[in-house]
Amino acid sequence: MVATAGTGVTASKRSGRRPQIGPPPLAPVLAFTVPTIGYVVVNRSTPHFDASARTVLVYDLGHGTALRLGSALLLASAITLVLMAAVLYRRLRTLGITAPGPAITLVGGIAAAIMLTVCATASYVSGRLAGGASPALAKAIADLSFFSGGPAFAVMFALLVFGLSATGLNAGLLPKVATVPGLVIAVVGVLAVLSPVASGFSYLVPVVRFGGLVWLIAVAPMLPQVRRRATA
Prior knowledge:
It is built from 8 helices and 2 strands; from the N terminus they run E-H-H-H-H-H-H-H-H-E. By secondary structure, it is mostly helical.
């Protein structure tokens, strides 16, 4: 017997239309990478989440421009993250994947983008605090920024990574050596939700953010445009 294409490709052949595979997945991944790195560079001296309220207020009052610029970069990364999730979702659906993986990828990306938007809003407000603001207010806003842009983002971003890696493994779209690191990053992302409870887990957040980013840059070019499988 001859090899036949996947469900999405077969349907396109029957209808006489070429499947719309969308842009290369690496393009939105790189677009997400740029503002993400830019934010880290601009806000590299942000106080740790367990810093005192007075320390947070002093930093906010002295780094208003950096905080506002960082909020703009976070918002840009949120927008590009939604685009990335949509492109990945479309590519998986075009390959004929009907399992929950593509939906998990899309929902995880959108939810992670929402968390980044909340973090961007809190960061902008921190950069607009006046000299008479109370340390308690500055600390509360900083905590919101940390939780939304830290553990909450890590968990949602882990869903995106899990959806793509699990689908790539189960459907044979990606080599096993490429999917296993993605599954590990997804597990680390779930553990990162414990950051507000135990400070030791806070170091898992950058592992998910940058480990997941490197993983996406590596696997995005590996996603095929056509899914082929042998049938008996």
